[in-house]
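INTERNAL AUDIT FORM
Audit reference: QA-55
Scope: verify that the stored structure record matches its stored sequence.
Auditor: D.O.
Record contents follow.
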Amino acid sequence: MNDDPSEPAAVGSDSLEEARAGDDQGIQQLRAQLEAERKNTRRLRAKNQREKELEPYQVELLKLQAHLEAQRQKMIVLFEGRDAAGKGGTIRRVTRYMNEKHYRVVALGRPTDEQRGQWFLQKYVTQFPRAGEMVLFDRSWYNRAMVEPVFGFCTEKEHEDFLRGVVGFEKDLVRQGTILVKMYFSVTKEEQQRRFDRRRHDPLRQWKLSEVDVEAQDLWDEFTKRKYEMLRRTHTSVTPWTVIRSENKHQARLNALRTILDVVDYENRDPSLDFVPDPAIVVSGAREVELMEAERIQAGKFRD
């Protein structure tokens, strides 16, 4: 034992090992923290780059809006597709810089008792654009073609009556001068499940997960059958469907912008931009029907 207070006490080997272990653990935690920060920085940079790629097309949308206002034209854009297919995120990119005075986003809930006694399309017609305005429907009257029959919210007769009448209704709209764009966002079953899982475990996204979403995976095949029937019976040369593959959200958003802009011949279009939708992302409704029929022949059933 050392009784001289001027000399430091001896440090045991166990204490040194514990100190070193603590230092190593602290270094590892610091490295993990730095790596997480680097990943987050790379993610934010990539997101910023994707958003920058959309901006020239968002500028074009302002020109399109000005054209609609000057020509007193009406435009309706339908966003359809399965839950978690990317409709809402695309709508936000479309409208991010648009003039709020000349567009509206319409997302109607379940019909009221009064609406149940009306002509089915009445609640949508009351939301139609005035002259110079664009209206974007986040789900539309095509609820009766897919969601309602799958979940039993309408009868088979109501479903059949809708499919028989909607084409004539839309052709009348177009004939009277309304510009109609119908987009269906297509996502795989695996990707839909991944997005549902993310919503389930992310507190900032849990509000997006509904009871209907939870059942969507179990009812996948039934939705697919209704999708096929809808496209087959309501795609026409006058009122066509555009199907957008939305596995990659950014590419889906970019090509949705191109699809909207490609419909209208507005002034001062930027000649340096590529307005042609990517054929790997965008197909016509008629082509989608052909692909689905080929899959059914090869696999014995529809896959999407």
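Auditor finding: record pair retrieved intact. The longest strand covers residues 178-186.
Action required: none
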